[in-house]
Structures are given as C-alpha cells and as structure tokens.
C-alpha cells in the first residue's frame, strides 16, 4: 500500500537532462510538490527549477496510472496477476525463439529509467535472451552526436560542466537548440552570463526565445548547417585566426580539413544556407578571438540524414579555435531525456555497444562480460532501432519487449511503425501508463515512476546523481528492476542483487568510465560524480581532454564534413519546409506532461506555426484548423500564426498523439548513426 505520512526525498528531476535536483514531497502516496534543495547539492540548478520540474509531477498521482498487469484477449485488455502475465511473457518469447531463432526477439530500453535498470535491460537481452537487438531512443536523438564526437575526440559526450563552464564562458555558438523551451534552466544560465557580457551567437531557422538575448541572431535555411560551419572554419583559417599551437600539439588531420573547407566561400555559404557574409565573418571572428567558447546544440543538428556530419563540422570549429581541454570551453550537446546520457548511452542498451561503449566484437571485452555473467554476450552488432522496425515488417523480428518508450509516436513515419508493430507475434510493453504503444501490446506490465524508486541518472554533463523515492507505487506496480529480475528468474537466470547499489557495483566492475562509482560515494557526494571516474581514488572528470583526447596517441582528429543538405526539398506539390521541436510545457511524446493539468492549460494541443504571409495566402486565421500533408500522411492541427521563421518554413511540436508530427516525417537514415531525418520534411497546408 501507499505510504501514509509526509515523506521527503532529495532526488533528480525526471524530465530533461539538465539534471536539476530538488526535494520531492509526498503524502498518502501522492506527490505534493518540489522544493529547491541545498545549493551545494544542486550543481546544475543552484537557483531554480523550470515549470516542468516545479509543476510537472502530478502525473505520478494520475488515476490513469497502470496498477495491475494486463493481458489482451480477443482485442480487449483484462487484468491479470503478475504470475500469469510473466509466465505468458516467458512462454511466448521462448516459443518464438525456439521456432525462429534467438535473433527473432528484440528489446527496447528507456532513457527515462535509471542507469541500473538500463544496465539490466541490456543484460536481459544479451544474457537471458541471447539477442544483440537491443536499442533505445538515443538512436533517435543524439546517436549522431555520439558517432561524431567519438570519431573526433574519443568520448561521445558533453566535454564540459554546466555551471562552471557553460555558465562562465566568454562566448557561445548555439545552433539547433531551442534552449529556452527544451533545457530551461540551462538557458537561464546562458542568459545570465550574456547579461554579464558574454557573446551569444544563435544560428537557427526560427527566431527562438534565446535569439532575443543574442549578440547576433542569424536565420539559417533548415538542414544547411554543414555549409555555414565549414564556411566559418574556412574564414578563420584564411584570416589566420586559428589556434596554431593547439592544432600542432593536440590534433591531426588539419591539412586535409583546410583543403576540404576551401569551397565554402562566403558566397557559397550564402547561396546554400542563407547566411550573409557579414553574419558569417562576424561570428567566426568573434568566436576565434574569444578566450573561451562553448558550442551548444541539440536535435536541430542531430536529426538529419547527415546528422553525424553536422556534428563533425561543429567539432572541427571547436578544434580549430582551440576550445577543448580547458575550462569555460567545450562541445556541449544538450541531451534530451533525464537519463539518456547514462541509461541510453553509458549503460549500453545499444546494438553496437556493450556498456561503457565497449565493442561487442572485441574478444577481451566479451571475456570480461562472460566471466561476470557466466554467459557470453552475442558477439556481433545487432540491428539499430529503425532497422528493427524493418525487420519486424519483414517478419524477421517477431517478439518485442519495450520498456518505457512510445515508438508509435516517436518513430519517423509512424503509420509504418504501427504497421510493423501490428505484425509482431508478441509485444510486451512495460510502462507507467497505457501509452499509445501499450495499446498494441499483448501484455502490459505496470511500472513504478522515478518518484517511487532508488537509482541513479547521469545528466547531460556526465554527472551521476542519486534518485530517491518520495512515494510508493500505485497498486501492484513494480520497479523496472524488480520486473526484469523476476522475468530473468523465470527464464532460469537468478540475479542476486539486494538492490540497485549491487547493480552499480557490477557496472563499476565492467565499465571502466564508471570504475570508481558506488553508492557509498554517491550518498556522501551530494553533487554527484562526473565520469570518467576511473577508480575508487579518482574524483571524476569535470571537463574532458585536459591532457589528452581519448585515443591511444592522445590526439584529436579533424574529420572533414562533406556537404549534404536536406533529403527532401520543397517542390510544386509540397512547397513548404516543415521543421519540428519542443515547447516548454511538454516533454517528448507527452506521456507524462499531457497528464498534468497545469501544463496542458498552457499548451493543450498540437499546432502548426505559420508565417502571416502564408496564412493570408491560405486564407487561414490564427486558431483555425488546417490540414498538413506530406508524402507519408496528413494531420489536422490548429494554425498558430507567428512570424518566427521564413514564410516557407513551418513548425510543429513533437509532443502530441492527435496531430502527431511523425505521421508526416520520413525514414531516410544517417548512414553512420542511423538517426532518421526528422528535422526537414516537405509539406503542403490547406484550410479545412
Ligand atoms: Fe527538470 Fe530540466 Fe526543468 Fe531542470 S530544466 S527542472 S532538469 S525539466
């Protein structure tokens, strides 16, 4: 039953990856609210939380929380006991594997869950099911960041800290991030520092909130970032403003880069990206001359069929200006979900990485895992999430176990994803609500929210922080850890953990960058630990690459970014460019925020933002419904007439099931990271 007294937990926000900390209060099993905690213990938010952190916890108390396992019979769900539901899961997955081979099942992990649960999720896939097909939503948000940064710098993560570096730098280049709405507390940090004199350059198709505070806001054409980034590098080299000693001592490949950026003259950049020579050279020169600069980005850079090349291009700019391996500088991918850095990345629920980004084809790595688990993990790279949906469509993947994700809203071209899911012989969904995806499941397992469990999250600055329960779970809901442990046991694998602390001990034995992480240290270090934490005596790594980059020779690599633009360009049939993003009051596919009245009050439904000229042409007024169509599908949404972008560019947020933008998007993939081209879609709009 639920706890019957006021309880207080010092914990970490379960929305975005800024990782704000606060005290979460509960009474009679319900979350009451949050209160800022001791500034010492809150490295990311020593002054506040955003509206989601403050008012966004009502979903925990929702009467719609799942309270018992559900089994679908004749198309209807009925309540079931845990025994019945889990036995069915084990029977059906076993049958499918017996008939079609171990690789016919796949597992999806969740960046909302803790590190420990994500570790166990991939262990369940690899040890228990012997399938390499495990992946998570990081594939769809920053896989191109990880791929780009690993190639150039060695680690696929933010190189610097939030407060001491982002909060104190001399200069920013922010692109492809609507920071004010997606990472509010981080944006406040940036605005404060800009008020104190730092330069801020915002390159973005839409005039977002942060642009109001910028030294220079430059409107770019969607999907043309390689052009202006290469153009900046070219200009800096031409003006002799590059950091020669840094390049000489700490990098390799500069000559090739220099050659490859040569075609990106200011004229060429203007033609491709719509960036004027004045804006380009002013930003390039200010960035190159600044003592320190932070390069910040999010999905506007990553979600393209050339996402990895975008990341290479911005990293080259950071390297030529010597902005790595020192305080107040660095490359800052702003990660989205609360625990996508740790749970989605570090813990290795990914087909090409074992935990800690270790190679599943490396014999030494395999032996290490085998000696810990008693079973050799599959020694090959599995299918990435979008490939898994193709395999489902082809009948090669027939069973799927989804923990805490909502792919029928988050996959590109969701009609196709739905179709693939419908073809499955068996689908298990483990979640806190009966999500759009759970509706398709054969078995639904009720999970605990992060307000109801212990564990750790790793925020966007690689900081591992404690998560603690303020309330107990509703009904029979159980933590992901307990459910996975139970299922593994029914498959004959006894996991003997006393709690998440034991799982972290196993992680520290297997994952070198978490080598010195344990609960004793985390409990006595309220500000958390930033990886790599190599061993028990190592205090962690506030900023990366102080002495060397993460390669044997210690040198960063310049990897030139060859030009690529959007996959689909506007034409007569579909003359508008649609781009996507977030709004302050919602989060991802909205499974939590759409259940919070205080947030729904502000933005209750999906919309399309169109320029007033376009609205006039269409004869549409603000607030009227319109039909938005692409080659994949069509949706009806409210028109929001606002001149934030060029007349030919329209915007739809990603949070809604009604008017879901992914009815329109396409599944063209980045060849390196397999991230889909979410950000640019050709559409047309018609009044109803
Ligand atoms: Fe939570 Fe992010 Fe808001 Fe901080 S900025 S309170 S981590 S949603």
Automatic annotation (TrEMBL):
Domain (4Fe-4S Mo/W bis-MGD-type) ranges: 6-64
Gene Ontology cellular component list: membrane
Keyword set, alphabetical order: 2Fe-2S, 4Fe-4S, Iron, Iron-sulfur, Metal-binding, Molybdenum, Oxidoreductase, Repeat
Cofactor: Mo-bis(molybdopterin guanine dinucleotide); [4Fe-4S] cluster
GO biological process, one term: respiratory electron transport chain
Domain of life of the organism encoding this protein: Archaea
Keyword 4Fe-4S: yes
A GO MF term: formate dehydrogenase (NAD+) activity
Keyword Metal-binding assigned: yes
Family, per entry: Belongs to the prokaryotic molybdopterin-containing oxidoreductase family.
Protein name as it appears in the record: Formate dehydrogenase
Protein species of origin: Haloprofundus marisrubri
Source lineage: Archaea, Methanobacteriati, Methanobacteriota, Stenosarchaea group, Halobacteria
Entire protein: shown range: 386 to 1073 of 1104
């Amino acid at each position: 039953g639920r706890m019957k007294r006021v309880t207080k937990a010092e914990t970490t926000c379960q929305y975005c990856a800024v990782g704000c900390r606060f005290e979460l209060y509960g009474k009679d099993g319900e979350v009451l609210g949050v209160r800022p905690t001791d500034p010492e213990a809150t490295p990311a938010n020593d002054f506040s939380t955003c509206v989601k952190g403050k008012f966004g916890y009502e979903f925990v108390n929702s009467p719609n929380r799942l309270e018992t396992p559900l089994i679908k019979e004749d198309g209807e769900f009925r309540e079931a006991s845990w025994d019945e539901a889990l036995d069915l899961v084990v029977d059906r997955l076993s049958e499918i594997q017996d008939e079609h081979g171990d690789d016919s099942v796949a597992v999806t992990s969740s960046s909302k869950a803790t590190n420990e649960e994500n570790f166990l999720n991939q262990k369940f896939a690899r040890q228990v099911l012997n399938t390499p097909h495990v992946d998570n939503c990081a594939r769809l948000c920053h896989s191109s960041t990880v791929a780009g940064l690993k190639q150039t710098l060695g680690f696929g993560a933010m190189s610097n800290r939030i407060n001491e570096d982002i909060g104190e730098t001399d200069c920013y280049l922010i692109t492809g991030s609507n920071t004010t709405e997606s990472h509010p507390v981080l944006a406040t940090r940036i605005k404060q520092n800009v008020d104190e004199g730092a330069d801020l350059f915002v390159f973005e198709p839409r005039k977002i909130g942060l642009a109001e505070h910028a030294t220079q806001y430059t409107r770019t054409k969607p999907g043309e970032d390689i052009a202006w980034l290469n153009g900046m590098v070219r200009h800096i080299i031409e003006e002799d403003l590059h950091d020669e000693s840094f390049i000489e001592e700490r990098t390799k490949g500069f000559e090739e880069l220099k050659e490859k950026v040569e075609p990106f003259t200011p004229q060429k950049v203007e033609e491709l990206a719509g960036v004027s020579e004045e804006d380009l050279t002013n930003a390039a020169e200010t960035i190159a001359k600044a003592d320190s600069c932070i390069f910040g980005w999010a999905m506007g850079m990553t979600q393209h069929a050339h996402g990895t090349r975008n990341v290479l291009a911005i990293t080259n700019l950071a390297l030529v200006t010597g902005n790595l391996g020192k305080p107040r500088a660095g490359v800052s991918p702003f990660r989205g979900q609360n625990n996508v850095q740790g749970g989605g990345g570090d813990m290795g629920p990914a087909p090409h990485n074992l935990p800690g980004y270790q190679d599943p084809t490396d014999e030494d790595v395999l032996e290490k895992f085998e000696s810990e688990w008693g079973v050799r993990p599959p020694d090959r790279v599995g299918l990435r999430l979008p490939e898994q949906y193709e395999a489902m469509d082809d009948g090669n993947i027939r069973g799927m176990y989804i923990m805490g994700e909502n792919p029928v809203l988050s996959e590109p071209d969701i009609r196709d994803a739905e179709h693939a899911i419908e073809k499955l012989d068996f689908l298990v969904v483990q979640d806190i609500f009966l999500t759009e995806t759970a509706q398709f499941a054969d078995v639904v397992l009720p999970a605990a929210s992060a307000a109801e469990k212990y564990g750790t999250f790793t925020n966007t600055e690689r900081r591992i922080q404690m998560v603690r329960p303020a309330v107990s779970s509703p009904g029979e809901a159980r933590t992901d850890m307990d459910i996975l442990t139970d299922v593994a046991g029914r498959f004959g694998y006894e996991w003997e953990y006393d709690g998440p602390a034991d799982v972290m001990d196993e992680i520290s034995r297997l994952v070198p960058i978490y080598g010195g992480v344990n609960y004793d240290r985390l409990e006595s270090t309220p500000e958390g630990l930033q990886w790599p934490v190599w061993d028990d005596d190592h205090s962690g790594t506030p900023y990366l690459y102080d002495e060397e980059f993460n390669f044997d020779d210690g040198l960063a690599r310049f990897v030139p970014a060859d030009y690529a633009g959007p996959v689909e360009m506007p034409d007569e049939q579909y003359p508008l460019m649609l781009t996507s993003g977030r709004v302050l009051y919602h989060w991802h596919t909205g499974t939590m925020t759409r259940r919070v009245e205080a947030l729904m009050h502000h933005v209750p439904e999906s919309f399309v933002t169109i320029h007033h000229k376009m609205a006039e042409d269409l004869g549409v007024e603000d607030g009227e419904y319109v039909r938005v169509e692409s080659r994949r599908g069509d949706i009806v949404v409210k028109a929001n007439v606002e001149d934030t972008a060029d007349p030919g560019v329209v915007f739809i947020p990603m949070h809604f099931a009604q008017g879901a933008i992914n009815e329109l998007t396409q599944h063209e993939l980045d060849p390196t990271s397999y991230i889909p081209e979410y950000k640019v879609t050709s559409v047309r709009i018609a009044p109803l």
